[in-house]
Amino acid sequence: MPLWLREHRWHQTPAAVFLSLPLRGARATPANIFCSERYLKVSIPPFLFEAILYAPIDDTNSTAKIGNGNIFFTLYKKEPAMWDSLTLENADKEKLQHIRENAVLKAQQKAREETEAKKATQEEHKKYALEATMKLEEAERKRIEDLKEKERQKVTEELELWRNQQKDADKYKSIQKEGELHQEIGQLKERRSEKITKTRIPNEGTSKTRPKPTKGCHGSCSIFLPNAKEEELPAPRSAATIKVNFTPRVFPTALRESRVAEEEEWLHKQAEARRTISADLSELEDLKEEEKNPDWLKDKGNKMFAMGNYLAAVNAYNLAVRLNNKLPLLYLNRAACHLKLRNLHKAIEDSSKALELLTPPVPDNEEARVKAYVRRGTAFCQLELYTEGLQDYEAALKIDPKNKNIEKDAEKIRHLIQGTMQCS
Description:
Layout: E1 3-4, E2 9-12, E3 16-22, E4 33-35, E5 39-44, E6 47-52, E7 63-67, E8 70-76, H1 93-200, H2 260-280, H3 294-306, H4 310-323, H5 328-340, H6 344-357, H7 366-382, H8 386-399, H9 404-423
Parallel strand pairs: 1-6
Antiparallel strand pairs: 2-3, 3-8, 4-5, 5-6, 7-8
TPR repeats: 370-403
Coiled coil: 88-165
Domain CS: 3-87
């Protein structure tokens, strides 16, 4: 049997009713209070308070505050007037039962409408997130295509310029060869003319005698000597193609300019990532190469978080964690998204995992550790686990004692803990 709470105090104005209900040491939460236009109920086992109100109220704007062992109600009247009493008196049981049932039915209908509205809102958010992701991907794809087209045009122009230069060089060489050939022919003609002139001039003292014919000429020998034959020119050089083979390399730089150790380490990591993807993530075969990079996914998740699209950011961080589960920033950023989505237990898990990976504690990871403690402490406080939350905030203050914001939040948590202890 419930114990009825009869003790209460109330006063009114034409616009509102103010009701104070003592709890007798019981601990109440908002879930213990039910309020509609004509019906007010507080159920804190084993105590029960029930009131059929004198006139309708605005249950949407009315409030209830719990503190100092009391519940303070502020009930706004729908029509300004002074009530004769708080509850409806001299009413039969059937009317009271009818008011209760109507209140419950309206509450159920309102809950269904809120659930449907919330579901519709979530669907709209998902649709917006999908559209935003598709727009971003389309913009990124277009940007990459534009870059490819620019590079293609640039290479085409360079190739055309090289071809023109080669044609000009070949033309210049042919002109130069023709000039050299004409020069050699001219020199040869000059030598032939000199030899012919020397042969026609008679020797001194023998101008009256005929020169002896050369053996085998029989008086009809040519005036040209055998040595005066036209010299044969060498044939032009034949064209040929020389094939040069280069050692295949993954990186475009020359071997003498590369850092071999760093390149081998990078290739080893890429091969390990590809093996992981092929072994555990066979469903990601359709993704592009950059979409399989954890750093690229982390940057995309950060952009989604900045836009307020927390679900898309969580999806990006999830895929990045599956590709590489050793990056603490992935867990730290995903914890921030879970806080925004009110996934408090997941936020605690990701913050704890980030702190586990941020070991040993060194000056370089101080900022990340502070964020992890604060986010985990915030999740604890939202779950009303103020002691655990205060411990995390104090750990963050040990790392960064000059942070005034963290100090203020820790002081608020201490006051909350003291108020809770006083109420209990």
